[in-house]
Write a structure and sequence with these properties.
Blueprint: H1 11-22, E1 26-29, H2 36-42, E2 47-51, H3 56-72, E3 76-79, H4 90-95, H5 105-112, H6 115-124, H7 141-151, H8 158-167, E4 173-177, H9 180-188, E5 193-196, H10 210-221, E6 226-229, H11 236-244, E7 249-250, H12 254-263, H13 267-286, H14 291-294
Parallel strand pairs: 1-2, 2-3, 4-5, 5-6, 6-7
Length: 310
């Protein structure tokens, strides 16, 4: 997730530390509030990097981010194709949620009446888009946000993905695939994994639900690559459903954001415990003894998209 530090200062570091402790992947977003180098030091065994595109100067920033991720030891590069442009979010507009973070009488009041959050802000400093500090005029929220807003944008083209694949020698996962033909093409250019995602449903309301296209994508490429999924993973039952439909594992962001907002540093451990408990419970209910067995559950998914005529 980008800008998780607005929810709780130091969020990415808390997520990374818990992921390292649990030995589960943590994917740092390009617009995160901690840098590649910081997260690599906290979560050396589980660190993945999610990459947005910066088309200026033949992708100078894009490829420098790739270089930094490589030198820091990121295990997986995750170029993202499910965020082609900014979307209109009425609730964000209504609530004044934006980057740079607005400082006005209302937000000042909220800060002053939230002492635990304010203490963390003093410890961690104002959240900035930390990965973009080297490319900004100064290390400030306004300056780094401007780099993200002005110099990034669009979705990686197939030619760009090929260039990234050629440069990146570790596992390479394309995030945002929603059609089996695109999955086939990604595998053909050398992707080690397909991440089925509609960006959490946050950009394009007309996109299908990830789970509805998952069966067709698994059928197309599941025997040749690792298929993963996010968007709509809210609890253990969603994880077991996705496993039964052929995904090898799931990602979730929003649940951890809610836990963070409610409990601060205790949020990530609490949400991880909830997921593990619910996964065990749902496996019990469906009669599966392991995650591997979940893949053999017989499913009936009438809403899955049929791709025969597309």
């Amino acid at each position: 997730m980008g800008s998780a530090g607005l929810i709780w200062p130091g969020a990415e570091k808390l997520f990374a530390a818990e992921a390292q402790r649990r030995r589960i992947p943590y994917v740092l977003a390009t617009p995160g509030n901690a840098s590649i180098e910081e997260i690599a030091a906290i979560a050396p065994d589980v660190f993945w990097f999610q990459l947005y595109r910066f088309p200026d100067n033949d992708h100078a920033i894009t490829f420098d981010l790739v270089r930094r991720a490589d030198e820091a030891g990121a295990h997986v590069l995750v170029p993202t194709v499910d965020s082609a442009g900014k979307s209109k979010r009425p609730r964000d507009i209504k609530n004044g949620c934006r980057v740079p973070f607005p400082i006005n009488p209302w937000t000042t009041y909220q800060v002053l009446t939230s002492p635990a959050w304010t203490l963390q802000l003093l410890r961690n400093g104002m959240p900035i888009t930390a990965n973009l500090v080297p490319y900004a005029e100064k290390a400030s929220q306004n300056s780094t946000a401007e780099v993200m807003q002005v110099r990034s944008g669009g979705s990686h083209t197939w030619e760009e993905l090929k260039r990234l694949r050629d440069r990146w020698k570790r596992p390479f996962v394309v995030k945002g695939i929603l059609h089996p033909q695109d999955a086939e093409r990604a595998v053909a250019l050398g992707a080690d994994g397909i991440w089925v995602s509609n960006h959490g449903g946050r950009h394009f309301d007309g996109a299908p639900a990830s789970v509805d296209v998952l069966p067709a994508i698994v059928s197309a490429v599941g025997s040749r690559t690792t298929v993963m999924i996010d968007s709509g993973i809210r609890g253990g039952l969603d994880v077991v459903r996705a496993l039964a439909l052929g995904a090898k594992f799931c990602f979730t962001g929003r649940c951890f954001a809610y836990g963070l907002g409610a409990l601060g540093p205790a949020g990530a451990p609490h949400v991880a415990d909830l997921f593990l408990d619910e996964i065990r419970t749902e496996l019990l209910h469906v009669g599966a003894c392991s995650v591997a067995e979940a893949a053999s559950i017989k499913v009936r998914h009438p809403n899955a998209w049929r791709m025969d005529n597309y």
